[in-house]
Amino acid sequence: ERYLLRVQGTIDLSTQDEFHRALQKAASDETHPEVAIDLRGIDFIGTSGVSLILKTLHHLRDHRRSLKVIDCSPRAARVFSLLKVDYLLPAS
């Protein structure tokens, strides 16, 4: 069973604190071995949002848990690709 985090709208400097809190909540719920992030409803994700996802991924791996992006909007996928972290995205 996994912890599902659905995100919508924009993840940038003005919303990164809220996104960080949501990721922390997901990561702290140790009853789920996997955190799944659904980014299908994202209009924009900035580097701060991608950085938070990567930090959470590393934290979870250190605790023998996993993080997966299970869906992603085309705009967000483009940012992941430009930052060369598209390995986080589900295979097309």
Strand order of the main beta sheet, please? Answer: 1-2-3
What is the terminal separation in angstroms? 23 Å
Structural class: alpha/beta
Helix content estimate:
40-55%
Can you give a write-up of this model?
The chain is an alpha/beta fold and 92 residues long. Helix 1 packs parallel to helix 2. The mean pLDDT is 94. It is built from three helices and three strands. Helices cover 41% and strands 32% of the residues. A three-stranded parallel sheet has the order 1-2-3, covered by helices on one side.
Descriptors:
3-stranded parallel beta sheet; alpha/beta; 92 residues; single chain; 3 helices
Question: Strands, helices and their partners?
Answer:
Layout: E1 2-11, H1 16-28, E2 34-45, H2 47-62, E3 66-72, H3 74-82
Parallel strand pairs: 1-2, 2-3
Quick recap of the structure?
The protein has 3 helices and 3 strands, in the order βαβαβα.
